[in-house]
Amino acid sequence: MNAAAKPGAGSAKSVDTPAFARFEWMLAGRYLRSRRRETFISVIAGFSFLGITLGVATLIIVMAVMNGFRGELLSKILGINGHLLVQPIGSELDDYDAVAARIENLEGVTFTLPFVEGQALISGPSGAFGALVRGVREPDLVKLPLVASTVSVGTLEGFDTAGGLAIGTRMARQLGVTVGDTVTLVVPRGNVTALGVTPRVKGYPVRAIFEIGMSEYDGTIAFMPLEEAQLFFNQEGIVTGIEVFTDDPDSVGPMRTAVEEGAGRPAFVSDWRARNMTFFSALEVERNVMFLILTLIVLVAALNIISGMTMLVKDKGRDIAILRTMGATRGTILRVFLITGASIGVVGTLAGFLLGFLVCLNVESIRQGISWLTSTELFSPELYFLSRLPADMDSGETFTVVVMAMVLSLLATLYPAWRAARLDPVEALRYE
């Protein structure tokens, strides 16, 4: 029998190497490195890498900023307002001391804060505008760390007896006043005379200036001693409501019934989630939509991997055919191109995570630098309520982004790698 009659003569026996052997990694590394005639393919791979990096970094940064924005707003809102609000039904809240004491004895309640609240026109040397005046006692005001620990000028000591106001930095700046200066409060329902009700106008010295860090509070709220507020707003002996602060703001739902029963009188109890439902629902919708939109950036970058790998397979058709005739199996070819494409996605994802992490750590400095270079105010406190740009990277959310990017990159590599493994050596070498 001659050699021509022997089946399989002239071709090497296919021997499958161990999965992801060193030879496959070495060959994939050579395909990732550019040569003179393969520069265009390497440029496409570079853009794919850059797209994955920027997509992952952008997604991490935006989600961290939105998490930080929500967290900061939540901490400011809950730092000033109670987790539960008790308001009277049917009659005025004139037994507020007894009601507050009963509620404060309930399990899970940290402290209670009776208050008088009213709107007034506040004026100073630089202007006049509407303000929300809250009457509270000094011991209760000291229990609010966002106010007591942020007093920059003046002091809260002797707040009840001094007869002055505690205002925010933005309000002080807009009024053009500082500690010791006098501001004027005007309310339409004041003194009752024979000619009717006349507006009440009274001047108060500024005793303390605080900076909460939320423009909505720093520019609109003024604190006044409780007894003085009762006289000023014609509410002698009564309060507007009682703020209830709890150990866990997220568990206020089950406590509403207990607080209603503990009040010992007809009362309407609402929690912070119900009072701010529209605002936080809008934030949650915006957060989810931004996640979906920015995910498309990562998806487009993954599609770039498909185009780059497809061109690489077409360019390496002769090399694939030679490897097949030398004994490389389809599995070997599949793994080589799988490693090549997946390397772009994995390294790009890790680079994007590192870039996003570094930006989140320095996001406020970056904002200030861009504002200085462009002579504009980015993240204006008047629009976004906060005086600084927050960023809070959630570990679970960041892990999800990284895994999603890697999975998309791997899926984008499967089709080109399968095409390379299915390449027929005879067809590839027919015209060589």
TrEMBL record:
Residues 292-425 form the ABC3 transporter permease C-terminal domain. Residues 48-260 form the MacB-like periplasmic core domain. It comes from the Bacteria. GO terms for cellular component: plasma membrane protein complex. Pfam families: FtsX, MacB_PCD. The chain crosses the membrane at residues 40-66, 289-313, 333-359, 398-418. It is found in: Cell membrane. The keyword Transport applies. Its main location: membrane. It is a multi-pass membrane protein. One of its GO terms (biological process) is lipoprotein transport. Keywords: Cell membrane, Lipoprotein, Membrane, Transmembrane, Transmembrane helix, Transport. Belongs to the ABC-4 integral membrane protein family. LolC/E subfamily. This is Lipoprotein-releasing system permease protein.
